[in-house]
Amino acid sequence: MTDIIQLLPDNIANQIAAGEVIQRPASAVKELMENAVDAGADDIRLIVNDAGKALIQVIDNGRGMSETDARMAFERHATSKIRSIEDLFRIKTMGFRGEALASIAAVAQVELKSKRTDDETGVFIEIENSQVIKQEPIAVPTGTSIAMKNLFFNVPARRNFLKSNAAELRHIVDEFIRVAMSFPEIFFSFTSNGQQVFHLEKGTMKQRIVQILGNSYTAKLVPVQEQTDYMNIYGFVGKPDTAKKTRGDQYFFVNNRFIKSAYLNHAVMNAFNEMIAKDSFPMYCLFIDLDPSQIDINVHPTKQEIKFEDEKIVYAFVQSAIKHALAQFSITPTLDFELDASIQSLDAVSKPFTDDKRSSAAATSLYNTFTKKNQSHFIESKSDLKHWKDFYEPGEKLAVEGSPLTGEAFTAGQNIHPHNPFGSAGGQPVTTDQLLQLHNSFIAVQTKQGYYLVHQQNAHERILYERFALAVDGKPMATQRSLFPSTIELAAADAVLLKELLQDMHHLGYLLEPFGNNTFVIQGTPADLTLGNPQGAVSEKTAIEKMLEQYKHFSNDLKFSKREKLLRSLALQQSIKAGTSLSLKEMQVLIEELFNCQVPNSTANGKPTYLEFKKEELDKMFGR
Ligand code: ADP
Ligand code: MG
To answer: Looking at residue 257, what is its pLDDT?
Structure first.
């Protein structure tokens, strides 16, 4: 028998390693831009073609590379940023694993041009499959340009896995914004298929935010600024009236690196507490600086999630800094100051942090409050998740479980054959004296055999879904043209999203026209606004924002088409909500329309629309 173990050839090992670092075009954009920042550039240009699938190029005017360094840079574990393991914990630069360029060279055709200030000529290197295939001197300005072509050309499985251009471009826009936002002192531009998407002049943080998120924030930003020896926070939050129905404009940076943190987000939301409507999201762009030894950035491979040595302190600090900022600008009653003052005087915050300080801080009641109370949001968000999951799976199990009414007394709407008891198609017409609304949320419909309990929102969602589905399938809904069209300005990423949906939205009666700069003109809205529709009350702008927020909830990974997601989002968002009082006439129409649906017994997302209670079963339950 011969031995069978072999070492993987370098290029294959690199391709495997690359999988972790370069998952999609946007990951390469992030790595290349971070390298340019680390190289001290103050002018960084990003060029992509075909959403990065054909070309991603980053050109900087940073310090450049020597000929040897340029070759070395593409080796795995090649970095100028770490010398020892301790460096890992001190590191302040953006990229630090020495893996990015090696990974890129493993999965794309790369061309590098680079020159240092004092060198007479620059260097040109071409690489394919991790092999240098060409190297020659070249005349170039100081700085570095790295172009990667045909991403995943040699890993077809990954290439096929990429999403539509619109979706990949959106990821790229997100990454671009995350880097550009934290370095207002650097000029950035972004060109996609020859069209300039961003041109961000150097300026202040405030100017940068407005450049990126739109003019609507001018004069609407509240500065946040607190400094202690333990950590600093600075940045801006939007005034409460700029809170939007979509979650887009929220950014956290720790040591200038964009991070995602549900925990810190919760701290901000808490600080805004009663000042904004429940389902709206305040804008924020916050920078936290603290000793790198207090965080562990390596917990997440793409480095967007971090672990704080002491997250409760960070939570308290963030929350109090924002309350303070809002109070100073008299946006919130000064009452909230109390908390702020108590946190400021906490040793942990006001003095350098040592181990014995830590334990004394942990003993204070404030600290304990944060330990318990603010962890509840984890539970909250978990139950949210569960809720969203219910959403996708047709619910075989219904809310019946755990109910005191067990057994056959009622059949869940889901399980019965839709036999259309009411409505024009075969069933009996519903009369208003059969109807009773309960809790402004349910409609009881009494029949000879018992009664139906209809969930008004779920029912309406089903009705709207079928109506919308019909509309996009070629029976477009009428549009009412606005006499005075209003405009809606979105975050860049949301604008990309909305552009994808314009055509289908038009079928649904929304006439929107791109107007440059992430702005759209709302030329018209559906003429036939439906029963109980809250649209009369909210502006069409809010309706569109809400729709986008809903749409984003249907994560990319789900196997729904764009159109399906749009239909579901609109139906969900426009349905009459539980808690809305309905007139008898409205209830009657709702019931008839529900039972005229193709699938009256559940929403598109699988929630039941009604339960049936049979009189004979009820009798049995009462021993009759
Ligand atoms: P890391 O950034 O973790 O060091 P990379 O693979 O991203 O690893 O880069 C390897 C090295 O190549 C860097 O440490 C740096 O010395 C050099 N380098 C990469 N990009 C640039 C650039 N745009 N300008 C100058 N040097 C660069
Ligand atoms: Mg790097």
So the answer is: 87
Phi, psi (5° rounding) for residue 51? 50, 35
Q: Domain 207-328 is in which class?
A: alpha beta
In the DSSP assignment, the letter for residue 26 is: H
Segment holding 384, helix H or strand E? helix 376-392
pTM beyond 0.85 = no
pLDDT category at 303 given cuts 50, 70, 90 is low
Give the model's pLDDT for residue 299: 54
Query: Which ligand has the nearest atom to the CA of 91?
Result: 1
Q: Is the CB of 65 under 6 A from ligand 1?
A: yes
Ordered by start, the domain boundaries in the chain are 10-202, 207-328
- C-alpha 97 – ligand 2 centre gap (Å): 7
The CATH topology of domain 10-202 is: Heat Shock Protein 90 (3.30.565)
d(CA 132, CA 11): 12
Structure tokens at 595: 């039972």
Distance 64 CA to ligand 2 centre (A): 14
103 vs 81: CA distance, rounded Å: 17
Averaged pLDDT for residues 385-389: 32
Residue 34 CA to ligand 2 centre (angstroms): 6
Report whether residue 73 contacts ligand 1, using a CB cutoff of 6 Å.
yes
pLDDT band at 331 (very low <50, low <70, confident <90, very high): low
